[in-house]
Amino acid sequence: MKHLKWTLALAASLVAGAASAEISDNVVRVGVLNDISGIFQDTNGMGSVEAARMAAEDFNGGGKNIKVEIVYADHQNKADVGNAIARKWLDVEGVDAIVDVPNSAVGLSINTLLRDSRMTFLASSTASSDLTGKACSPNTIQWVNDAWATGNTTAAAMMSRGGKDWYFLTVDYALGKGIEAEAQKYIEGHGGKVLGSSKHPLGTSDFASFLLQAQSSKARVIGLANAGGDTINAVKQAAEFGIQQSGQKLVAFLLFINDIHGMGIKVAQGLQLMEAFYWDMNDDTRAFAKRFAARPGMNGKMPSGNQAGVYASTLAYLNAVAATGSDNAKDAVPEMKKFKGKDKLFGDTTIRQDGRVVHPMYLFEVKKPEESKYPYDYYKLVSTIPADQAFRPLAEGGCELVK
Fold first, then answer.
1. Domain 24-145+282-354 has CATH 3.40.50.2300
2. Is the per-residue pLDDT at 4 higher than 50?
3. Cα distance between residue 61 and residue 379, in whole Å
4. Which residues form the signal peptide (predicted)?
């Protein structure tokens, strides 16, 4: 009788174990949530969807015949729209992880919604540092970039090259304000000065008045704390004003290869920018980029850092699912945080307890037209910021997950 009870108890524990670690609906669904029709459509958009599909194909069932589906939706850069999509994915459509999410307001809203749910948030394009600070969640992994890294590492790199006096053109929402605040803190803490700042709405077409204020400030560096179409418009109009020719340096905190291609290298030449990924860095990045460029609808386009981040984070999540046998965030995310090694696209990589993925960052300068030898040959490396210096120290973020 005792033996029978022990057998039943063992069977019950095995059933419970199987129930706690399993793949829901026998398929892992990853939802790419981004801006498909607005200012981030080139740096994210359908390119991110293709990057996620590439990750699913390369995962190839994880050696366990695990089925993967990639779904996608457009959050229109509106937090309420993004939240509604995520809730439907969570409550109705059986989506297990959300990836990408450019726009910090949308990302922070998704982060709050998914906390303590079964869904994983792979915030590969959400730049708010709060995701690994006061808003950190056990369900969230943040890849590629954030406002602390963007602000601090860019400011440090420019100041080391003589850029002591700054003026900011800043998009008036969480992303821009966060970048400017981080950069200003670093600049003023290291003997520099911020001579002024102009705030502009998301989706601004006319930067003339802002650029005139920046030009008249005589600041050595004009920092563009914005992204996507806003940065492109600002750089184009700065070229018309001859700002860089007059001796002021233009630095973009959050710009991608697609943006340079869109504005043209003649307009962008001399621009300084910080990137986590460049398609032409090494054999691994070039191999990925060549495959990406051949995907449906890409028409030879090279991937942005955000699109590379979608691929890397999706593949890392799927590998964690295979390792644990579960697509539940409480199983997959801790497994992801065990990773420390070389990522093919981002180099030496560690995933910390606060969810921050740590990797090197790079300061590039856009080449002159005569220096570019082939399509998308746009960057020359100025300096490399090692992984241990590129992101906010773990102890300083204030994340309650850090013990």
1. yes
2. no
3. 36
4. 1-21
